[in-house]
Amino acid sequence: MSVFQNIVVLTGAGISAESGIDTFRGGGGLWEQHRVEDVATPEAFARDPDLVLRFYDERRAAIQTKAPNAAHEALARLDARWAGELLIVTQNVDDLHERAGTKRLVHMHGEQLSAWCTACDQRSRWTGSLIDRPACPACGMVGYLRPDIVWFGEMPYHMDDIYRALNRADLFVSIGTSGAVYPAAGFVREARQAGARTLELNLEPSEGSYWFAESRHGRATTLVPQWVDQMLGD
Ligand code: OAD
Fold this sequence. Notes:
The chain is an alpha/beta fold. Helix content is 34%, strand content 19%. The protein is built from ten helices and nine strands. It has helices at 14-17, 30-33, 36-39, 42-47, 49-63, 70-81, 96-100, 159-168, 187-193, 220-232; strands spanning 7-11, 86-90, 105-107, 110-117, 123-125, 145-149, 171-175, 197-202, 214-217. A six-stranded parallel beta sheet has the order 3-2-1-7-8-9, with helices on both faces. A three-stranded antiparallel beta sheet has the order 5-4-6. It is globular and about 55 Å long. The termini are close together. It binds 2'-O-acetyl adenosine-5-diphosphoribose. 2'-O-acetyl adenosine-5-diphosphoribose is lined by residues 12-14, 17-18, 23-26, 29, 40, 91, 109, 150, 176-178, 180-181, 202-204, 206, 219-220.
């Protein structure tokens, strides 16, 4: 029987790395191959929409060839069986958590498989490309669909729900994130202030390691199933 009731889990690119999806920082990371200012800001989209649309079209096609790994599956198992409150907050824009079966999930940085119409404000599931300026399925307008991704300088999604959960949590677990991007990088301090135990599962110490009561270092596909077994008493 765990001493914990309410859990918040934050995931980042490291949880999808072993599924073959590039992380952002570090050797070979996406932000070594592309400048953030060129592809991941509203200014970049205004300046060179084709470059931005092509960048996300390639990533959207790529994630559909990948599969969830043992770490995504372990979190789905936790979600299915955890009787207390649980919120899995992902910074990832892939859909590997939901394909593993996770339900109590929010995408704070948006979703690759969603297109947002800035004419009618509707979001539509999107698996194809946007470069040819398809019409919005909701309003029919052409030229207004953009990737439903939170770019730098934009407000992340679901922040009220996330802070509510952090303030009720007695355990906060961060998995596979460098702790370099706010507001997500600040969640550990928010949870600590609310009295939660804090645990980091990451390949290496992250920029925010100092803030965690406990850090375990290794691959997500090893560490996450071990931690979930521990939580469920398996
Ligand atoms: P990063 O690329 O910054 O960090 C990934 C972290 O995962 C690093 O600390 C790695 O050491 C760790 N890691 C790599 N492989 C791992 C493995 N197999 N098992 C466990 N850990 C592993 O990615 P994020 O922290 O997710 O935002 O980046 C945060 C945000 O910055 C992203 O959501 C994205 C980016 O700019 C937007 O695009 C809005």
